[in-house]
Amino acid sequence: MQRCDDWTTGPGARPRAAGWLLLGLAVVGLWLPGTVGAQDGDQPAETITLGYLGLEPDDELEPLSVLDPVLDDEGRQGARLAISDNNATGQFLGQGFELVEATVPRDGEVLEGLDDLIEQGADWIVSDLPREALDEVLGASVLGDRVVFNVAAPDNALRGEACHPNLFHTTPSRRMLADALAQFLAYKQWDRWALVYGNTDEDRLLAEAFRESARRFGHDIVGEKMWPHDPMARRAEGGFHAIQREIPVFVQDLDEHDVLVIADENDYFGEYFPYQGWLPRPVAGTQGLIATAWHRAHESWGGVQLQRRFEEQAGRWMTPTDFAAWLAVRSLGEAAARTGSMAQGEILDYMLSEEFELAGYLGLPVSYRTWNHQLRQPILVTGPRMVASVSPQEGYLHPRSPLDSLGADEGESTCRF
Amino acid sequence: MPFLIGPFASRALLTVRPALRSASLGLLLGTALILLPTLAMAERVFVSNEKDNTVSVIDGETLEVIETIKVGRRPRAMAFSSDGSELFVAVGDDEAIDMIDLESLKVVRSLSSGEDPEVIRVDPNRPYVYVSNEDDNIVSVLDYQERRLVTEIPVGVEPEGVGISPDGKWLIATTETSNMAHIIDLETMEAVHHRLMGARPRHAEFTADGSEAWVSAEVGATVSIIDMQETFDVSHTIRFDVPGVPRETVQAVGVALTSDGRYGFVALGPSNRVAVIDQQSYEVLDYLLVGQRVWHLALNADESRLYTTNGVSGDVTVIDVDDLEAIRSIPVGRFPWGVVVEP
Hints:
The complex is a heterodimer. The longest helix of chain A has 20 residues, at 320-339. Helices cover 29% and strands 17% of the residues of chain A. Chain A is α/β, with parallel strands linked by helices. In chain A, the strands form three sheets. Chain A has a seven-stranded mixed β-sheet with strand order 8-7-9-10-11-14-15, with helices on one face. Chain A has a six-stranded mixed β-sheet with strand order 1-3-2-4-5-6. In chain A, strands 12-13 form a two-stranded antiparallel sheet. The radius of gyration of chain A is 22 Å and the shape is globular. In chain A, helix 1 runs parallel beside helix 9 (320-339). By secondary structure, chain B is mainly beta. Mean pLDDT of chain B is 89; it is low at 1-41. Chain B is globular. In chain B, the strands form seven sheets. Chain B has a four-stranded antiparallel β-sheet, with no helix packed on it. Chain B has a four-stranded antiparallel β-sheet with strand order 4-5-6-7, with no helix packed on it. Chain B has a four-stranded antiparallel β-sheet with strand order 8-9-10-11, with no helix packed on it. Chain A binds chain B through residues 36-37, 39-41, 85, 88-89, 92-93, 302, 305, 308-309, 334, 337-338, 357-359, 363-365, 401-403, and chain B through 134-135, 137, 154-158, 175-180, 182, 190-194, 196, 199-200, 218-220, 246-248.
């Protein structure tokens, strides 16, 4: 494997001619013919090139807890690991996988990053972008009929009215995460929720997902409040004396509830809430007990294997975005191995067929929903240091798969390809 | 203590424990004729308890746990040394193979195995043990007499199951993330064929005549039959459809094959069933309800009984092979993983 470091440097170094675009480029997983044991796999090598399109990390979005590391390679490390996993199998089948990467600065042009990936031969795109930037990519004529895997945007709309025939999602939607948590809370019979959400667009969307999930699984939201977070005040006012006084007062007027559900996707304030409520109630949602596609505490179903492989490569823990990127690249590898083909049409047909089953270290095989191209997957329900459960919970039945009790089902989906 | 006379008598006497010996001898002639058609030997059944760091020893006759042996951390697969004097236990978290003396039932030595050993098999001809090292994408070959690493055989991602042909010519290693069976020529110690299996292949078991290998797939819920005589290709795939059970809970793991070519048994994980398969037609004949999350299987010496480890319920189910019926469940330690019966 060969890898170059990203060369994102300070603003002063940006050449004007590049139009404010600074690309961090790297080529990993170049397939090397004639590696171990390819005795009866000596077919001519065919290679698929994937392009990883990401944004520079947002300085505004550093985690609230100083215990969480600030990452500058989130997502792409998952893609790199999957490339090497794909190639470990591909060497026996005459199939190779290669990753090219582009990192767009916060004030840069996403489409220039896309152009660059395509110039480098990317046949498939892995999008580590928020919804607006992803919409831009999907609307670009240069994209052609390339398929885009969304590994970062949780927007329900992208799986609904704003869906796209060439867009696949390996990251769960907000609705899937909310449903996973709602099922577990129903199992606990903690069905009176108080909801606190932030003042960002993301938090308003997540709060709406929690409301929908509460309705679907029979919970009652007894009260809601918006936490007026001021981004400028972050960390400066972090003294626990103030928090200790402020939070109980803020939640005091919420009606009697079993659980305090927080919607704070940006990790601005939710971490302050555990142990600070007016009532002695657990905190769940985006902090406290969370629903997530991946977590370091998860080691069941062979998960420890993936955790160890990832840590050996990246020197840090695997995040949900890394996992979504790993799933996207592995989906391609799995479909290519099974079909014996590197052709887009055959790979897509197989990925959307009932035959497709990817082992995602979550106990049940993961596969794609034909009606909106969302990966159906089990969701972990976990505390900060120990996994509490995995949804779907036992007893939530579905005629197709219990996994389809999480997220928009076929009948209610507003996606029309 | 009833014992058979005939072919099994000498073995039974050899393996019976000293305290029982004098009493057994007196009863031997008197009871032998009556019990002749049924089984009855003091064979011992060994069960590795993954969470307890122990191996439970079950008396094959009374079906009770008679001993619990402390071993290293996270014991999973087990195999007997080819002379039958020792039981090898892969203890994953200690990165070692513990060797239990079958007389004293104590760990007498330990062999370093490389990272995270999960499944082990013993060579019938040479003092070699084959170990899948999940984290390193290799199968290690260890000489357990000279206590040295013979070689490492590169395979795909996450090697798991290891099966060896009865003549010791072929080894099959399955890789869980590559979804392959790697067929290794044990003469040259090289993987010479690589075949795609169902998703997350686990166990590899050869038929008694060595003509086929059965490879289970946990996530794919299939068993692939590999022709080991000519093509080394998958000649048939067995699928499972357990009535009234969600498809997702059907996960094919352990495989046991009767040597007369009659039955194949496949443990189906959290569906809590063992599939009974006609070894010739590959037709699924029945699904037997056993304990929760059934993982591995072992037939006893005369193949009259099948033992299953049930990880979640923490017990072993005993199945009568003639009647295809579960006759007993025996509580063992936490998360029983592997099971072997003294040869």
